Amino acid sequence: MNVSTRITTPIAAEIAFWLWVVVAELLLVIGYFAFTSAEPTTLRYAFYPFVWINVGCWAVLRTTPAPPDRRSRWLAVGIAVAYFIALAAVAGLIGVRAPSGLDQNGDSAW
To answer: Are 45 and 9 in contact (CB under 8 A)?
Structure first.
């Protein structure tokens, strides 16, 4: 076997990919703290989000869910819409406002 021959397996390629992702994230964090006035109190809190993002991406890329049936798909859409409306209501983006009795100038409308 030639010394310059590389053995590339799918696992080695995946490890190399995730290693590059982690290096890029590390450079982003270092750049952020270098170019802003922010100071890290504890470095682990700067890296926790990246751990969750990487685990989530890895899980999405490694799984192949079964295609849902029509009822499940519409149920998921309904839950997603209800969740969006709940978040929008809590954030104050939508809601019901009671009439205040004042016009736009602050004068009584009565």
So the answer is: no
Task: Tell me which residue has tokens 């109190």.
Answer: 41
Contacts of 108 (CB under 8 A, 6+ apart): 101, 102
> 36: which DSSP letter?
S
Q: For residue 4, which phi and psi values (nearest 5 degrees)? A: -85, -5
Whether residue 99 has pLDDT greater than 70? no
109 has a pLDDT exceeding 60: no
Q: Which residue is listed with tokens 């192949």?
A: 64
pLDDT in tens, 19-36: 999 999 999 999 999 999
75 vs 55: CA distance, rounded Å = 27
